[in-house]
Amino acid sequence: MLLTYDNIRQGFVVISAATCPLLFFVTAPFGRFSLSKDHVLNSLSVDGIQSWIFMELFSPVTFIHAFTQAPLLDHVPPISAPQGLLAGLFVAHYINRALISPLRTPSRSRSHLSVVLSGICVNFFNGLMMGTYLRSDTAHEFLSVAFRRPLYWAGVFIWLAGFVGNVLHDEILLNIRRNAKAKGKAKREDDPAKKGAEYYAIPHGYLYKYISYPNYFCEWVEWTGFAIAAAPVPPLTSPTAFMQHIHGPWVFVLMEILVMLPRAYKGHQWYLDKFAEYPKERKAVVPFLI
C-alpha cells in the first residue's frame, strides 16, 4: 500500500483512540516512570537527554522535507506568507523541544529503547503529515487570505500563549533539577536501589497552583491555536464526516490529548502518593476539571 497523507492522518486518529485507554494501564518507561536499575529490561535503557534529542529531531526534519519537497503531493502550490509563518511556528516549537530545552537540562532519567523507537515513529509521520498538509492545495486555499482573517491571528496568538506557558512551566521543572544538583541531591547515591534516580519535588508557580501538568495543558493550547489558524474545524455530524475531513493540525491536537491525558493522570496520582503534603486541590491537567 502506498503511503499517503490520508493514510497517515486517519491512521493517527484510529491508533490514538485505541491507545488512549491502554495507557491508563500500561506506563511508558521514561521520566519518573523509568525502570529501576535491577529491572530485567533495564539493559535496554538509554541516555535520557541524548535519546530525547535524537527522537524529537525527526519531527522538524521530516516536516521541513515534506513542506519544501512535498513528496506525497501530486500538485505543489506556491508557498504563501500565512503558510510560511505557520511553518516557522512549527519549527520554532521543535527547536526548543528538541535542542534548546534538553541541552539546558541538568539531568534526565534514562528512557527505555521502546519509548525512543515509538517516539521516532510518531515524530517521523507527524512531521510528514504536518508538512504535507501545510503545503497542500487545501491549506493553500484555506490560508489564501488568512492575514485578513481575525481567526488566523487569534490562532497564532493562542499558539504563542501556549508556547510561552510551556516554556515557563518547563523552566520551573528545570530549576528543581538545577537546585537539586547544586545541593548534591540529584542522585540518591545513598540508596543502591534508587542509585541514578532523578530527584523530584513539588513544583510551584503559575498554573502549578491548579494542575500537576501545566506543561501538557499549555502544549494542548499551543497546538489548538495552531490548528485554528491552519485548518478548518472538522465536522462532528458523523464519524465518517469527521474522518474524511479532519486535517493534520487537528489530528495532531487530538493525538496529543489522547496520548498525554493518561500519563498526566498517572503522574498526578504519583505526586499524590509520593508527597503527603501535595496540594489536594490540584487537578491533573485541566484547571478545575481533570
Please state the structural category.
mainly alpha
Name the beta content range: under 5%
For the biggest sheet, the summary is: 2 strands, antiparallel
Strand order, biggest sheet?
A: 1-2
The end-to-end distance, rounded to whole angstroms, is 40 Å
Count of distinct strands: 2
Mean pLDDT figure: 91
Considering DSSP H and I runs of 4 or more, what fraction of the residues is helical?
55-70%
- Number of helix segments? 10
The rounded Rg comes to 20 Å
Oligomer: single chain
Write the element-wise H/E pattern from the N-terminal end onward.
HEHHHEHHHHHH
Low-confidence regions: 191-196
The rough form would be described as globular
